[in-house]
Amino acid sequence: MFQSIRRPIQERMRCLESIDQQDRLNGTQRLQRLRQIPPETGRFLALMLAGSPEGEVVEIGTSAGYSALWLVLACEASQRKLTTFEVLPEKIALARETFKMAEVENRVTLIQGDARHYLSKMEKIAFCFLDAEKEVYQECYEMVIPKLVKGGLLIADNAINHQKTLQPLLDWALSDERIDAMIVPIGKGELVCRKI
Ligand SMILES: C[S@@+](CC[C@H](N)C(=O)[O-])C[C@H]1O[C@@H](n2cnc3c(N)ncnc32)[C@H](O)[C@@H]1O
């Protein structure tokens, strides 16, 4: 998976990493920033997805498609497709460009809209990466957990860098009897939940 990342994917990853780094340095407004995961989180997500059971692969919060590229690597390895949701039209345009330039359009369904309007219609989710506004985490969590297949994973970003805001959800998840959960100290902190 990581040994043979195709050149178009690698090039788009490098380009987005560079834009994201600039965003953080030059005070770009929050809504315009890519706010993407660091590469080590991408590798972690791809490894987790590669070992997940059969079922839908979902991402909530596409931005420009950087984390989606890591998820696509694992989808390619297991002949699956990613469905990723984004609300902002400017980010949708960037993500479309990403998937075209990286030549992975056949592996991704990009949906413009609030993921909460679509999650209720989904069935048998094997893997969900949650990386949206913190205000919607709890609601997305409650929509995704019942839809996870046995052994399916929900991974939520920002469990450490936004710990205070997310504390009620973290407390709830860590004692939720439907899942096994832990916080993994990688990148911005990943809440990993596995359906029992
Ligand atoms: C932190 S960024 C995602 C970064 C991306 N996962 C990456 O690492 O490359 C969060 C994104 O979620 C989007 N978003 C926020 N709430 C959403 C919702 N309810 N449904 C879909 N997208 C949402 C925002 O517009 C923003 O672009």
What does this structure look like?
It is built from seven helices and seven strands, in the order H-H-E-H-E-H-E-H-E-H-E-H-E-E. By secondary structure, the protein is α/β, with parallel strands linked by helices. The chain has a single domain, classed as 3-Layer(aba) Sandwich (Rossmann fold), CATH 3.40.50. Strands 3-2-1-4-5-7-6 form a seven-stranded mixed β-sheet, with helices on both faces. Helix 4 (89-101) links the parallel strand 2 (82-86) and strand 3. The protein starts with 6 loop residues before the first helix and ends with a strand. S-adenosylmethionine (SAM) binds at residues 35-37, 60-61, 63, 66-67, 85-88, 91, 114-116, 131-133, 136.
Shape: globular
Mean pLDDT: 96
CATH topology: Rossmann fold
Q: From the helix content, strand content and strand pairing, which structural class follows?
A: alpha/beta
N- and C-termini, Cα separation: 27 Å
Spatially, the strands of the biggest sheet line up as 3-2-1-4-5-7-6
Name the hetero compounds present: S-adenosylmethionine
The largest sheet, given as strand count, sense and whether it forms a barrel, is:
7 strands, mixed
Work out the radius of gyration.
16 Å
Low-confidence stretches: none
CATH class: Alpha Beta
Encode the helix/strand succession as letters. HHEHEHEHEHEHEE
Question: Oligomeric form of this entry?
Answer: single chain
Q: What's the name of the CATH homologous superfamily?
A: Vaccinia Virus protein VP39
Question: Count the strands?
Answer: 7
Beta content comes to 15-25%
| Number of distinct helices | 7
Label the CATH architecture: 3-Layer(aba) Sandwich
Helix content: 40-55%
